[in-house]
């Protein structure tokens, strides 16, 4: 499985998730990226701009961020199916970050990932558990992308492997926080399902160079 594949198109584009369980509709992940400084609701503006080291929404700065932290305004975010698709009750994706700025910038660590719904950005259940904390700073040149691996339990309307433990609800898409960022990006995903209770069903690793 290649978890390094990265693709971002600022204009809306559609990608079909492969490797879902037989009989389960495959959710469609779009790479339309919107950003909001309020983590309770997705906004409608596309993230563009030039990098400002360690700058985040509202002027907040994470003291653990790398010195050349990519500015939120210089990042585009997408979620794409990973090569290999599915295995042992799981489906795999990559969370992709593209440097849309004019200069190089850095990312380090795992992003924050959750599913949102109800048409207003309400978080559905637990966020992805961050795994593999062997962290390295990755430098992105202008136009370059890096990815973080995202694993999800392949739930269906009955919960799939988590039947009896997962309260299944439909979602609108992903809320993504870049590593060390306080700004939420929204990536739409038509047909996505989520566990609305506190069961762990997603895992995300740190960004890595392709």
Automatic annotation (TrEMBL):
Residue ranges that the Swiss-Prot or TrEMBL entry lists as coiled coil: none
Domain of life per record: Bacteria
InterPro entries assigned: DUF4232
PROSITE patterns membership: PROKAR_LIPOPROTEIN
Compositionally biased tracts (Low complexity): 25-60
Residues covered by region (Disordered): 25-65
Cross-referenced Pfam families: DUF4232
Residues annotated as domain DUF4232: 70-207
Entry keywords, A to Z: Signal
Segment forming the signal sequence: 1-21
Record protein name field: DUF4232 domain-containing protein
């Amino acid at each position: 499985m290649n978890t390094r594949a990265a693709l971002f198109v600022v204009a809306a584009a559609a990608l079909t998730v492969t490797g879902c369980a037989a009989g389960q509709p495959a959710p469609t992940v779009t790479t339309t990226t919107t950003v909001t400084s309020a983590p309770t609701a997705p906004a409608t503006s596309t993230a563009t701009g030039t990098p400002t080291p360690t700058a985040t929404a509202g002027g907040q700065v994470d003291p653990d961020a790398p010195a050349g932290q990519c500015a939120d305004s210089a990042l585009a975010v997408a979620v794409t199916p990973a090569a290999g698709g599915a295995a042992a009750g799981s489906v795999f994706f990559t969370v992709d970050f593209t440097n849309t700025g004019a200069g190089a910038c850095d990312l380090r660590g795992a992003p924050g990932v959750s599913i949102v719904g109800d048409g207003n950005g309400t978080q559905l259940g637990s966020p992805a558990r961050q795994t593999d904390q062997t962290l390295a700073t990755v430098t992105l040149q202008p136009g370059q992308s890096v990815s973080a691996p995202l694993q999800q339990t392949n739930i269906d309307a009955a919960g799939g492997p988590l039947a009896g433990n997962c309260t299944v609800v439909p979602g609108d898409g992903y809320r993504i926080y870049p590593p060390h960022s306080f700004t939420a990006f929204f990536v739409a995903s038509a047909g996505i399902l989520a566990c609305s209770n506190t069961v762990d069903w997603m895992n995300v690793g740190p960004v890595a160079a392709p």
